[in-house]
Amino acid sequence: MATCQDKLGSFVQWLQVNGIQLRGCKIRPCDLGGFGLYSETDNNGGILLVAPLRLAITPMTVLQDPSLGPEYGKLFEEGDVDDRFLMILFLLVERAREDSFWSLYLDMLPSTFGTPLWFTDDEFSELKGTALYHATKLQLKNLKALFTERVKQLAETFLSYVGMPCREIVFEDFLWANSIFWTRALNIPCSQSFVFPSQPPVQLESGCLQENHFNGSASKIATEDTSPARSNIVSEQSSTVWVEGLVPGIDFCNHDPKGKALWEVDDENGSISEVPFSMYLIAGPNVAFAAEEEIRISYGNKGNEELLYLYGFVIENNPDDFIMVHYPKEALQRFDCAELKLQLLEEQKFQLRWLLHTSLLHKRVSSESSLPLEACKKDWSQMSGYSWSGHRKVPYYMDHLIFPEDLMAALRTISMQEDDVHGVISLLTELSESGYRRQPSEEDIKAAIWEVCGNAGALQLLVDLLTTKIMELEEGSGTEANDTALLEGLSTTEFSPKEQQDGLSEHECNIFERKRPMTKNRYSAIVYRRGQKHLACLFLKEAQDALHLSLSEE
After folding, report:
1. Residue 36 near residue 28 (C-beta atoms within 8 A)
2. Nearest CA to 116 among 104, 107, 126, 129?
3. Residue 24: pLDDT above 80?
4. Is the distance from CB of 315 to CB of 298 less than 8 angstroms?
5. Which long-range contacts (C-beta less than 8 Å, at least 24 apart) are formed by 41-45?
6. Of 498 and 129, which is predicted with more confidence?
7. What are the residues whose beta carbons fall under 8 Å from the beta carbon of 267, sequence distance 6 or more?
8. Is the pLDDT reported for residue 230 higher than 70?
9. Please, are residues 78 and 264 in contact by the beta-carbon 8 Å criterion?
10. What would the pLDDT profile of 432-481 be if each residue is shown by its tens digit?
């Protein structure tokens, strides 16, 4: 059996044979597992690695596969699969093939992951009360249904076409391919001349990928809006085509919020890297790497919820963390005037989910600095120009209210009492029946609701939502302090009566009695969960302070 070092050596040779240039960097095992890119010697910047995009696994690669490309093409032309599905299916099939060109690359990729989809039941239980708990359960259910209904049969059929009729595909194979795509795919800006050239494709020969270009069969992938999240589109204003793909070599860069390197895409002339149509890794401005220093890039400003869900890791004290506040639409049905409220929400184009980012806490309602009333009056509410506007003064604390206006405006709408709803309708009717003679706009509706309701009802509702969120987060796992103790290894199985009197219930004490190993996944779940509790408590304090000021003002 080949050792890790043997596999790495064969993979590096495969990279070099196929045009990957390691310029002063190398791939080696990381101290905490997996592989990463490291500087070979002291490096004062410049280009560190160059990868021809012809070696990337993209939707075009799938359609140009010499053995199964036509089958993938037929599947895509049927119209009920998108480019992501094709790539995940391709990864699944290629990993199972004995003669795959991509074997040396795929063998180097992780076989398990730190995302919640791969948690054990015990690890997954640490996520109870969080948004990820419900999202992962739903995702796992959908993936299992997709595998049973489509993927298993397609993969086994495709394998039979390449002489492997007895290879059985199980759900874990599909889960692996799905995880590889979501943890490693990049959104690559390509020129139209690369995606839609006139030259026919060149076949793979002797385990080496030759100069291959892509014909018109890729156009549907590159131009259709196949996903609301990250679609592959051709900009009408430029010649850029965004294509998702895996780039061997580049995808061994791990994440650092302050990553010292970044990747770029070179043009058809190779003006920067001297390799046409390539992706290159370059040190950031005024950056130097010491010998054996890991070369990291930033995956973007992402909170722990996103990092754990997509990539399988978290960052303690993440400055980009956030919590999601959600008001269930069905809850509105329990109140008077539900249909009118729903209509007002729809006309204001509100989604009933809001992200509260850590950065919002930089501007506190309880800040000692305060502005005079006149300085606080600004155009945020669009409250001018109506016969009924201006009766409600802009409160002095408004300039320190940290919550986004779309959240506040939606909560004002939801929290209205029956008399408030009729008052708003009356004000809006004035616009259409008086000299204005027009249908109310989004801003008209927001202004009318503000004039009738103010902030008190919205802030009380926000306090209730955040209180409920904290209760859900703490159920079964205790407070933020409990999570901190677990992470610091301070848990104990014995509590004195004094400690119990200080607020730890018998149930909370049982949290500490769970002498389970601190696996990486469990650690990630607790760090994420603790961050959610921390932010929820801080935002609750802000909402309570704002509510107090609002009530005293009114």
Report:
1. yes
2. 126
3. yes
4. no
5. 41/291, 42/288, 42/289, 42/290, 42/291, 43/283, 43/288, 43/289, 44/288, 45/282, 45/283, 45/284, 45/286, 45/287, 45/288
6. 129
7. 191, 276, 277
8. no
9. no
10. 766 556 678 888 898 899 889 889 999 999 999 999 999 999 999 999 99
pLDDT above 60 (res 200) = no
Query: Dihedral (C-alpha) 185, 189, 191, 197: value to the nearest 10 degrees?
Result: 20
Give the rounded percent of residues in the chain with a pLDDT score beyond 90: 59
Instruction: Give the end-to-end CA distance of the chain in Å, rounded to a whole number.
Output: 76
With contact defined as beta carbons under 8 Å apart, do 186 and 247 qualify?
Answer: yes
User: Span 33-62, mean pLDDT?
Assistant: 92
Please list the residues that pair with 289 across neighbouring strands.
43
> For residues 251 and 205, what is the distance between their CA atoms, to the nearest angstrom?
24
Q: Which residues make beta-bridge pairs with 25?
A: 39
Four-residue CA torsion sign, 477, 481, 483, 488? negative
DSSP-derived secondary structure letter, 246: B
- From CA 274, how far away is CA 288, in angstroms rounded? 22
pLDDT at 299: 93
Q: Which residues contact 532 (CB under 8 A, 6 or more apart)?
A: 130, 131, 305, 323, 473
The 10s digit of each residue's pLDDT in 424-445 is: 988 888 877 665 566 788 888 9
Q: Cα angle at 480 between 495 and 258, to 5 degrees?
A: 135
| DSSP annotation of 395 | P
Q: Residue 353's pLDDT band (boundaries 50, 70, 90)?
A: very high
Contact between residue 491 and residue 512 where contact means Cβ atoms under 8 Å apart = yes
One-letter amino acid of 377? K
Tell whether the model's pLDDT for residue 363 goes beyond 70: yes
* Residue 73 CB neighbour total at 10 angstroms: 18
DSSP state letters, 204-232: -BTTB-------GGGHHHHHS---SSS--
Predicted local confidence at residue 145, as pLDDT: 98
Q: What is the predicted pLDDT for the residue at 351?
A: 86
Dihedral of the CA atoms 94, 306, 250, 279 (nearest 10)?
A: 100
CA distance 277 to 224: 23
pLDDT at residue 157 greater than cutoff 90: yes
Give the number of other Cβ atoms within 10 Å of residue 533's Cβ. 24
CB 319: neighbour CB atoms within 10 A?
A: 11
What mean pLDDT is reported for the chain? 83
Cα-atom radius of gyration of the chain, to the nearest Å?
28
Split at pLDDT 50, 70, 90, the class of 234 is very low
List Cα–Cα distances, 494 to 28, 432, 483, 501, 518, in angstroms: 45, 70, 17, 14, 20
494 burial type by CB count under 10 A (0-12 exposed, 13-18 middle, 19+ buried): exposed
- For range 112-137, the mean pLDDT: 96
**Residue found under tokens 């509706």:** 445
Euclidean distance between CA atoms 111 and 68, whole angstroms: 24
Q: How many CA atoms lie within 13 A of 347 on its CB side?
A: 17
